[in-house]
Amino acid sequence: MSGVQEPLEIKFRLFDGSDIGPKKYAPATSVATLKESIIAQWPKVLLIQNSSTKWCLMTGKENGPRTVNDLKLINAGKILENNRTLADCRSPMYEFSGVTTMHVVVRPPSSERGTEKKVLSKPKENKCGCSIL
């Protein structure tokens, strides 16, 4: 086997079911570079299904990722770390072959994460109206 590694063809599946790609990447490409590519190609509009059968359009730039830390990439059930390369992410049980689909998870904006922590840190109130006779 030669020392030259073939480029990997990868597409990224977004939370609304749409895809970015496929596009070819060198095995030496870092996960952070993949995330930068996703941010650059993030769709301007996403179609989201709400409860029941209501659909709404969301502007992707408002609700999309702003930095590489706002994204998580999942491949073969593993969250990929920013400092690793595609070659590092290969496992003996799973090889990249053909078009590989990686799932993209967007973290909520930091302002929403901060309010979420405040809600969780409130003490629980007992709101039970039961009477024991």
TrEMBL record:
May serve as docking site to facilitate the association of other proteins to the plasma membrane. Coiled coil: none annotated. It comes from Elaeis guineensis var. tenera. This is Membrane-anchored ubiquitin-fold protein. SUPFAM superfamilies: Ubiquitin-like. It is found in: Cell membrane. It comes from the Eukaryota. The keyword Isomerase does not apply. InterPro entries: MUB, Ubiquitin-like_domsf, UBL3-like, UBL3-like_ubiquitin_dom.
